[in-house]
Fold this protein.
Amino acid sequence: MPTPPSITTRLLRLIVEHASISQSDLKVRSSLSMSAVSQATNKLLNKGIIRELGLRKVSMGRPKTLLGINPDFTCVIGVQLNTERNLIVMTDLAGTLIGEQQISIGKLTPKQLGDALAKFMKSTASHRHIGAIGLAISGVVDPDSGRCLRSFLLDWNNVDIASQLTERFSIPVFIENDANALALASVVFGQIGQSSSAILATFGQGIGAGIIINRQLYRGRHGNAGEIGNGLLGDGSEKELESVASSRAILQYLLNHDPDIDKRNPPRTLQELELNPSPMAIETLTNAGHHLGVSLANLSIAFDPDIVYLTTEPQTVSRILFDQVLQSFQKYRLRVTPQVTPLHFLTESRMWAQGAAGFAVNRLLDMLASEIDNEKQVN
């Protein structure tokens, strides 16, 4: 079983999640004594990890001093490595974008990735302190060991990428599956607001989902929870969702079967496909949207989240497909209570890279809290 978070870690997570919060509110939300809250927050203030944000007036008694993360304490780097784009970004601890650099898409060796990071640091981060690097990888990863177990995109098998980059840059490096990275960052940087549970599905050349329950990432027994692209369709065909509804499957199917497609200059993205869709393209997009919507509806029935997001790169947006996703989701989602789960779409181009930065912030703050706790034990 995982080790319960320390007092300092629990309080730091609450401060990050609520953006601004008083010690008395921390006491209520953590169920800790005011003495324990004061000792931990004073340590965090002395280290400069958090800061006082001013006073909040209350109806009775003294105004409360609000605490929040100090965004300038350090910076983090987030790296997006997926089928749609490879991108490096730098953010502060609050998620504010400081710089970005696109790198070549497709297969990268660990050395090539390290060289790209070195170039980015030299041009963008030469005068800044970098606390951690986060990698959001399209593939199967082991976050604890820092290994990429398998990534078809990168052609990596059992690559200890985190230790290689840590050794090169002397900076903590964390890795995560790209869907899980996005889900973790949504808690750290606030995209899901005060929701306690959410599903963030990713759509592109692959399909996956990050699942948040009680504001924690749910991984499943073997770390593969959310691999909905491998789920079977409910039409008896025994086909997997990704083989029918992913952007790669849609474009490949039309290239092979649609007589109206220009074989010499076929559309490379769903965005291009929608500029002048053929009848077969409309039918294929509608069918893919239906199966994806049903899959998300089933996922929402299984986990009953506060909200479901479908996330994709701008070039993968298809209004035909997304309209059908929404129709099928609304038709098949759980209806046993008056409250129905909403589905929203996210199409921000940097979100996976910023997701990598977000989960790096999460891991870094846990590390900083642990260092403070260790200092307390020594003293």
Remarks:
- The domain at 188-349 is CATH 3.30.420.40 (Nucleotidyltransferase; domain 5).
- The first helix runs from residue 7 to 18.
- The chain has a mean pLDDT of 90.
